[in-house]
Every structure is written in C-alpha cells, then in structure tokens.
Specification:
Layout (H helix, E strand, L loop, with lengths): L7 E2 L2 E2 L9 E4 L1 H14 L8 H7 L6 E8 L2 E2 L5 E9 L7 E9 H4 L4 E2 L2 H16 L3 E2 L4
Parallel strand pairs: 7-9
Antiparallel strand pairs: 1-5, 2-4, 3-4, 3-8, 4-6, 6-7
C-alpha cells in the first residue's frame, strides 16, 4: 500500500465472546435517527425513506438489534455495524419481521442494552417465535 492509498477497515464478524456482542432495544425514534445517520453516511442497509420505515414498523412494540458484522470501509469514516433488526410489522399487527440494518457505532452504544436473564429470554422467545410462526424477512428499500 502506498502512502496515497486510503487505509481500509475490514469487515469482521461479531462473535459471541466479543465485547461488542450485545443486544440492544430500539424505539421508533431511534430508528428514525439511525435512518438519518445512514443516509448522511451513505450506508446501504437502510430504508429508502422515512415514510417506508413508518409504513413497515409498528412503533408501539419492542424491537431488538442483534449483532452480525462490523462494517468495513475507509479507516477515517465513522465505524458502523450491520445488525439484525427484529420488529413487529405495522401493516400486519402481531406479525414479526426481521431485516438487516446498518447502525453507527456511536449511536448503537447509546441504545439500552438487553442484559438481564429475563430480558434476554424475551429476545430469544421473540426470535424463535418469529421463526416458528413465519417471521417475514423484510426488504427495506
């Protein structure tokens, strides 16, 4: 690599024993902020617009962000994660959805962490419940 070439941060998987392997709760307001940040930084896993986010997401239900990857990119760009977002669909009350979403590290670290055994059991139940009851993978474009 020459001095003129930009330094690149490699994408890496978030493993269960990594310090940043955390599950976070998220509100509709958080998702709107994440959407704005994603647009500003040009991150690709986001809704096409705020209206689509509001059309798909039920803001009255609890949502979770679960780890997948640390995104790669220019080393001088803000760090971000690609996370699974588990949510309830607005158009089909009670129907669960899951999608991938890019979330800035700075924003992610401010979200409430799910850490108690009872809360983690709720997350696992929501995830397995979604899988066994036909959770729908949502394209968010």
């Amino acid at each position: 690599m020459t001095p003129d070439e930009p330094q690149i941060r490699r994408q890496s998987r978030v493993r269960w024993n990594d310090a940043d392997f955390t599950v976070r709760t998220v509100t509709l307001e958080h998702l709107i902020q994440i959407q704005l940040d994603d647009v500003q930084h040009g991150w690709s896993r986001r809704w096409s617009c705020k209206g689509e986010l509001l059309r798909q997401i039920s803001g009255s239900k609890e949502m979770f962000l679960c780890p997948l990857f640390r995104n790669g990119g220019p080393a001088d760009a803000p760090e971000s994660y690609r996370r699974w977002l588990w949510f309830t669909q607005e158009q089909e009350p009670g129907s669960k959805g899951v999608t991938l979403l890019d979330v800035g590290k700075e924003v992610y670290e401010t979200l409430p962490e799910v850490s108690s055994a009872g809360d983690l059991k709720r997350v696992i139940a929501a995830m397995f419940g979604g899988v066994t009851e036909g959770c729908k993978f949502e394209s968010i474009w």
